Amino acid sequence: MRDEAERKADSEAVEVGARRRGAEGGTLPPVVDAAWMAEHLGEDGLLVADVRGPNAHIRGHLPGSIPLVLGSPAPVTERAVLEELASEVGLRLRRHGVTGEERLVLYDGGDCIGACSSYQLAALAGHPEVAVMAGGLKAWQGELAQGVTELEKNRNELDPKFEAVPTFEELAGRLDDSELTILDVRRDDEYSGKGGYPCDPRQGHIPGAQNVEAGDLFARPGVPLPAEEIRELVGLPEGAEIVTYCHSGSRSAVAAMALRSAGYRARNYPGSWHEWSRHDELPLER
After folding, report:
1. Cα–Cα distance measured from residue 187 to residue 177, given in angstroms and rounded to the nearest whole number
2. Angle ∠(242,24,57) on CA atoms, nearest 5
3. 269 lies in some domain
4. For an engineered disulfide with 227, which of 43, 255, 262, 270 has Cβ 3.0 to 4.6 Å away?
5. Residues 147 and 203 in one domain
6. DSSP state, 226?
7. What angle do CA 277, 252, 211 make, to 5 degrees?
8. Domain edge (last residue) among 114, 135, 161
9. Is position 283 within any domain?
10. Where are the alpha helices (DSSP H) in 64-192?
11. How do residues 149-189 score in pLDDT, each as one tens digit?
12. In this structure, what are the phi and psi dihedrals at residue 76, rounded to the nearest 5 degrees?
């Protein structure tokens, strides 16, 4: 167990702007912390899901939570791929008893990579109210439950929300859109094109993209900086629309989570540079 100073630091590090706006009236902030979870766990209409996998869930999980493995988006955003993915995720949600009528909070072991990927998939499948628990199980100070959780399947079908996943076509068509900020959250050498992954045929960045490394948005893995510090770092007003990308969508998924905690309308482009660099018709900057 961590000491009181660490627990206080975690609580202060996750300032969720949406908590101010949405903790009352049944709405769900896009990012919650362990203190929020301790206050709301067990409420009617709140479903907490562990994305680590059924074996990890059996060994120890938040009381009342279910195992829910949704996977990660592939670094491909062609419409046919997204349609198939939305259908598969919708099926998995139904098989785990998720109806779309509940407030769904996702958590993982602590770094939030799995939870953030699952967040985007649940949103793509059409779930209207999803959140990520910052710090995951590592931040939880309460007792853990063990054993198998029985699931109740349902037949509720969600309507996919394809706008939850930015595509390369959308970004290519909005390069001159002053209402959208594209944020490259890779290292500086990747952004500049001096470094990068050898599997990518071209190096550089999406034209006009700003660069803030993903780790700079976090106080510690899975725990975003306070909202005002994130807004100062990004240099945009609360409520701005942001699309994040990295190499293959993992760093940018957690970066988008941190940005949502600061009040931004942030989405992750899972295709990221892995996809963009493979389309010779798409421009780049170095």
Report:
1. 25
2. 75
3. yes
4. 262
5. no
6. P
7. 75
8. 161
9. no
10. 79-95, 113-125, 136-139, 168-173, 188-192
11. 999 888 889 999 999 999 999 999 999 999 999 999 999 99
12. -140, 130
